């Protein structure tokens, strides 16, 4: 008789997901091989997911939902997969991303690192690997975080893309992430993106000093009905704000910041100088 590994669904969200697969297939009297015969995955893959040795994917979750007849329900594996994915994100951020995917205008201000929507995969991976080295997240969570960012970027490539206005503190350009090759590629991405008609990229130079409007990152979204959403976060929690009385003053400060920052042409010139190592 094959040894049956006991599962502990309390160990982690992935363990709970795997234990649920086992319960549902065993209710039907299926072995892993029999379940695999209904899916486009091997029994080895199913075993790895059941025992939390391999993370589930969206496609895998959707196939399970279709097989078990729970597609679109609150009990779907896709819903559980999304909860697992969001587990590597700050509370509040998944809600913000939902709005971001529908925004007609996106305004960002960032300090220290390139804004996520402009990051190359290599730059994003270097940031995530840094968190792994500090013990803040696991290697699996790092991969999930990068994949989630790439999904956010892909969501902006649509028939009517949003207008994206970005102001970066000069520190974003100076803070070396991932080594010279990674930074070269990243800075080139900024230059190329600035040439697109739906992007405006500006740099808030160090010389701006106390005239800089914000001391923390800012995310402001305008939705199709012209309502606005703001997102801010601390080290441990993110918060979505939709109250006009709170969001409008932030928009005013953002306009003031844009007027004080370098023009896009001057910003691109600075990025190019940093890329060439002349500043």
Characteristics:
single chain; 279 residues; alpha/beta; 434 Repressor (Amino-terminal Domain); Endonuclease, Chain A; 2 domains; 6-stranded mixed sheet
What is the secondary structure topology, with strand pairs?
Layout: H1 13-27, H2 32-36, H3 43-50, H4 58-68, H5 77-86, H6 93-100, E1 105-110, H7 121-133, H8 139-155, E2 163-169, H9 171-174, H10 180-194, E3 199-204, E4 218-222, E5 228-233, E6 238-241, H11 244-260, H12 264-276
Parallel strand pairs: 1-2, 2-3
Antiparallel strand pairs: 1-4, 4-5, 5-6
Question: Concise description?
Answer:
By secondary structure, this protein is of the alpha/beta class. Helices cover 49% and strands 12% of the residues. The protein has helices spanning 13-27, 32-36, 43-50, 58-68, 77-86, 93-100, 121-133, 139-155, 171-174, 180-194, 244-260, 264-276; strands at residues 105-110, 163-169, 199-204, 218-222, 228-233, 238-241.
Structure explained in plain terms:
It is built from twelve helices and six strands. The chain has helices at residues 13-27, 32-36, 43-50, 58-68, 77-86, 93-100, 121-133, 139-155, 171-174, 180-194, 244-260, 264-276; strands spanning 105-110, 163-169, 199-204, 218-222, 228-233, 238-241. Strand 5 (228-233) and strand 6 (238-241) form a beta hairpin.
> What is the beta-strand fraction?
5-15%
Overall 3D geometry? elongated
State the order of secondary-structure elements, H for helix, E for strand.
HHHHHHEHHEHHEEEEHH
Mean pLDDT comes to 89
DSSP helix fraction: 40-55%
Q: List low-pLDDT spans.
A: none
The Cα radius of gyration reads 22 Å
CATH architecture of the largest domain: 2-Layer Sandwich
**End-to-end distance:** 69 Å
Biggest β-sheet strands, sense, barrel: 6 strands, mixed
CATH class of the largest domain: Alpha Beta
- Would you tell me which CATH topology of the largest domain applies? Endonuclease, Chain A
Number of separate helices: 12
Oligomer: single chain
């Amino acid at each position: 008789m094959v040894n049956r590994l006991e599962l502990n669904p309390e160990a982690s969200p992935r363990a709970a997901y795997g234990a649920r697969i086992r319960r549902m297939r065993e209710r039907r009297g299926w072995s892993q091989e029999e379940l695999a015969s209904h899916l486009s995955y091997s029994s080895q893959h199913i075993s790895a997911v059941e025992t939390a040795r391999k993370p589930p994917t969206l496609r895998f979750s959707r196939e399970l939902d279709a097989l078990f007849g729970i597609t679109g329900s609150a009990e779907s594996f896709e819903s559980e997969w999304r909860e697992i994915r969001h587990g590597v994100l700050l509370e509040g951020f998944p809600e913000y991303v939902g709005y971001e995917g529908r925004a007609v205008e996106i305004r960002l201000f960032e300090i220290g690192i390139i804004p996520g929507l402009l990051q190359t995969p290599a730059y994003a991976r270097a940031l995530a690997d840094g968190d792994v080295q500090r013990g803040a997240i696991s290697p699996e969570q790092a991969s999930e975080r990068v994949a989630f960012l790439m999904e956010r970027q892909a969501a902006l490539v649509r028939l009517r893309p949003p207008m994206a206005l970005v102001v970066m503190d000069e520190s974003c350009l100076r803070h070396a992430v991932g080594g010279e090759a990674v930074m070269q590629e990243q800075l080139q991405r900024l230059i190329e993106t600035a040439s697109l008609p739906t992007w405006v990229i500006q740099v808030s130079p160090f010389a701006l000093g106390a005239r800089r409007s914000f001391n923390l990152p800012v995310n402001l979204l305008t939705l199709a009905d012209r309502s606005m959403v703001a997102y801010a976060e601390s080290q441990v929690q993110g918060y979505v704000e939709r109250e006009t009385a709170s969001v409008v003053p932030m928009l005013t400060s953002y306009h003031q910041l844009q007027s004080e920052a370098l023009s896009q042409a001057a910003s691109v010139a600075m990025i190019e100088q940093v890329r060439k190592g002349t500043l």
